[in-house]
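queue> pop job 88
queue> type: inverse folding (structure -> sequence)
queue> payload:
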């Protein structure tokens, strides 16, 4: 019998599957990427883009012939009339069609190149097929900005009873309206809650009661704080979960998940059976939403008709009704009193139209009382108290 093959150690051997050379694959991937960056494979590029005709040798000949053609004969130059007054240069009219920006052109060219390189792979049986070249883009949901314009008129016309020569009935109606406005302010002020008083009236506390109050405030329950400190200082023991506890917890979670799915399935079956009722409920809900929307729109229009929109911290307060009293009605413009608040009326009118922000006149702040100190008064007071204490001790 011949000798068997000597066994060698396989510790240093390498698996042939792990050490396969992938240089060819890397070269192919790099080549494809380079072709895509350069505009595609060379086989698909036409010859006009790859080659060109060299005509650089004819440049000198063309320049020479052009220079000779541009020369004018001496006789023609003498006979040519040359005016000393320069001709009028017509201004170039600007074209209505604007120039397309360079960025748009570059973006369009880049998009064309991308479309040419990309492979057209789409489902031919699909109903809705959208290509990038169609330019179909999603519309942005832009929120409408509500205009703050007030529908108020530029000039507000007062009622007929505010005239300098009104009839008796119209004048009484205007007076009643002015009185109603003033009484409304009074009633509103009366219905407001009373302000918080600065000083609260109280009963003076006697010395004995004050002593008991101090004792109640500083009293503490004996032993209560010590027990609480012991409870907080006691270490918390964390129980380690075993494999059985973990399995029990996992089974409980699975059981709860199955119960939730069962409840959802039962609810879905019930909803399927009562689809007509759900449709009616949805219709009623939509009707209620429409009514609420209409109600809000009507309320907004009413608020806009009553006054301007709120532009700042304060709301617009309309001016009181300018009506003459019964004694002031004279029936003649000459006997009227002079109007000295024309600028103020214009200012209030601008606020009423919502053009400027309403303002409120600020009150004058009371000046702080000035405290004067006499030099050496503190030392004199201490000196007097020291002498008085010495007299008491000596006595």
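queue> result:
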């Amino acid at each position: 019998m011949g000798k068997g093959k000597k066994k060698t150690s396989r510790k240093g051997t390498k698996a042939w599957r792990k050490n396969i050379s992938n240089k060819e694959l890397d070269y192919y991937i790099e080549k494809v990427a380079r072709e895509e960056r350069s505009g595609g494979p060379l086989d698909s590029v036409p010859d006009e883009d790859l080659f060109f005709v060299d005509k650089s040798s004819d440049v000198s000949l063309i320049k020479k012939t052009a220079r000779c053609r541009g020369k004018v004969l001496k006789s023609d130059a003498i006979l040519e009339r040359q005016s000393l007054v320069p001709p009028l240069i017509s201004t170039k009219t600007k074209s209505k069609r604007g120039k397309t920006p360079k960025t748009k052109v570059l973006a369009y060219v880049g998009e064309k190149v991308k479309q040419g390189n990309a492979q057209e792979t789409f489902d031919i049986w699909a109903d809705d097929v959208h290509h990038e070249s169609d330019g179909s883009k999603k519309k942005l949901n832009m929120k409408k900005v509500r205009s703050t314009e007030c529908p108020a008129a530029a000039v507000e016309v007062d009622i007929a009873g505010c005239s300098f020569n009104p009839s008796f009935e119209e004048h009484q109606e205007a007076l009643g309206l002015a009185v109603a406005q003033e009484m409304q302010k009074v009633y509103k002020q009366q219905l407001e809650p009373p302000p918080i008083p600065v000083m609260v009236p109280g009963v003076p506390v006697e010395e004995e009661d004050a002593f008991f109050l101090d004792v109640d405030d500083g009293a503490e329950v004996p032993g209560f704080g010590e027990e609480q400190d012991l409870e907080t200082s006691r270490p918390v023991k964390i129980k380690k979960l075993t494999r059985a506890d973990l399995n029990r917890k996992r089974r409980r979670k699975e059981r709860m998940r199955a119960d939730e799915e069962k409840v959802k399935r039962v609810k879905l079956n019930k909803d399927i059976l009562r689809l007509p009722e759900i449709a009616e409920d949805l219709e009623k809900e939509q009707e209620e939403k429409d009514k609420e929307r209409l109600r809000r729109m009507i309320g907004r229009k009413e608020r806009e008709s009553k006054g301007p929109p709120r532009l700042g911290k304060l709301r617009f307060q309309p001016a009181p009704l300018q009506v003459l009293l019964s004694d002031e009605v004279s029936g003649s413009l000459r006997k009227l009193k002079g109007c000295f608040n024309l600028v103020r009326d214009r200012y209030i009118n601008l606020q009423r139209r919502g053009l400027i922000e309403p303002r409120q006149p600020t009150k004058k702040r009371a000046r702080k009382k000035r405290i004067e100190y006499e030099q050496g008064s503190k030392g004199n007071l201490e000196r007097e108290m020291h002498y008085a204490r010495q007299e008491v001790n000596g006595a």
